[in-house]
Amino acid sequence: MPESKSKFFIPAAVGAAVVIVGSIAAYMYLKGPSGGSSDALGSAKLVPSTALMATYITTDPQAWAKLQQFGTPEAQKLVAKGLEDFNKQMFSDGNVSYEKDIKPWVGGVMIAVLPPNPVKPAQFKVPSGAPNVPTNLQQESNILIVVGIKDKLSALNFANKLKSQKGGKFQESDYQGQKIIETTEKGKPTYSVVLNNSYLVLAPEKQAVEKAIDTFKGQSSFASKEGVSSILSKGVDVKNSLAQIYVPDYAGMVQQLAAGSQQVKQLPPQALAQLKLIKSVVAGVGVDDAGVRVKAIANLDPQLNKFQYQSSPGNIVGQFPVDTFALISGNGISRGWETLVEQSKDYPEMKQALEQARGQLKFVNIDLDKDIFGWMNGEFAFGAIPSNQGVLASVGFGGALVFDTSDRKTAEATLTKLDTLAKTQQINIANRNIGGKDVTEWQIPKQGALLAHGWLDQDTVFVAVGGPIADAISDRKNSSLDNSDAFNAVTGSLHKPNGGYFYLDMDKTKTVPSINSLVSSDPNTITILNSIRGLGFTANSPDKSTSELEMLLALKPKTAK
Length: 561
Known about the structure:
Elements: H1 3-9, H2 12-30, H3 40-44, E1 53-57, H4 61-65, H5 73-90, H6 98-102, E2 106-118, E3 139-149, H7 152-163, E4 169-175, E5 178-185, E6 188-195, E7 199-203, H8 206-216, H9 228-234, E8 241-247, H10 250-259, H11 269-275, E9 278-288, E10 291-300, E11 326-331, H12 333-344, H13 348-362, H14 368-374, E12 379-386, E13 397-404, H15 408-423, E14 428-434, E15 437-444, E16 448-457, E17 460-465, H16 467-474, H17 485-491, E18 501-505, H18 506-511, H19 513-519, H20 523-529, E19 532-543, E20 546-555
Antiparallel strand pairs: 1-2, 1-8, 2-3, 3-7, 4-5, 5-6, 6-7, 8-9, 9-10, 10-20, 11-12, 11-18, 12-13, 13-17, 14-15, 15-16, 16-17, 18-19, 19-20
Helix pairs in contact: 1-7, 2-5, 14-15
């Protein structure tokens, strides 16, 4: 691009940067973009190799158009109204439209996080006679944005239009033969440059733009960093990918960000060693027929990975009633506890806390390791179930813990110890038969059972909060959760086998009085929640060097206006 054209084009940086990053997703959700996108690898070649992480947002119309199949008319109107207000605030003095002026030329967007810049002491004006100030000054975040230009003519037209608007302050400087434009809006500067006629690079710090120019001129880039090129090319396998996130050195990123924050103490050697367990992370966000799906893959150091992963059969979900609105399941609490105890040897504060917990339980004749965690060696789940009776009347729901165990003898002994302890607190212990199962209840006057426990079969024990929950678990008259349409819609497409689930049914959650009261006061919140069917999450570890996470935000199909 000739220098004269660049001079007119670069003022577009300010409006483009804020509008692209702040509202590109919402515009695409409503109407879908036009044209193709720049690739992540190409953008990464302009990002300095010192970048701690990078996120690439695509503008592929086919990917974003998939979002348009979800949402209620009310939710779409809410998003449209928010965008209209945002556009008016951004361009209050002009007639600029994202849809007409920006979208036609915008390609893919990469947002990179560079190491924090230390704040120079000269930036602080300390009054004479003031008390001494600490020398460990806060470091500033350092963001670099690379925007692909897919239509140079449309970009130039927008630049000319933006140039004609009043109120903008522009200052030009030269670096390595490239024109950097400093644009000041409301006292805050933004620096931008056009590179190779194909990319708009901008940042709130001039040094970040200069480093991008150095990279463009031949210095090492994020793309050339060891291991980055492969993850940039491969990414994460999600349908209709909207964004990909790349963290090539997880421990290094956390360490540098922590060092730049006054709120985070210097990481102790033990914590840093634990961070080194995770070598790199790559994540992707995509849209499919079920909703918005997020997948992440962590590359682990097998020598540091002490936890022995074991997949969960998933059978325990069938022990919960169909109206269960939230569930967390997994396998082998005892193994996780053993790993935690082993790791505590390297953390004095953690070890001290464990010893204190052990000591306190010894006073009531309970061994924390054996009596509490030792027998929890099978599948487990915690579920939240609606109820407005007895002690649960004020909150509208109760909970149940269900465990599979191969050590029933120890589990029974522990529950007997807890029953004996409850008696010393003037709680009445009573037995009740529910659906042919013997259940022990902790009863309080006029309110019924506070807690109940019993055996569902030879190897499965439950502990329930509230008598009605014990009834729901012990004597199910309806189908179980694993056969419900809602549970299968949210979790059915998640990876199997896996280590367990987190599950949330949004419709049932909203009917719980204590939860509904928290969100019902905000109509906008209700509007958004009405478009969500549920949330599902799971994890898998195919080997000791890999950990995979998957989350699905299940959305309701678009309804007619």
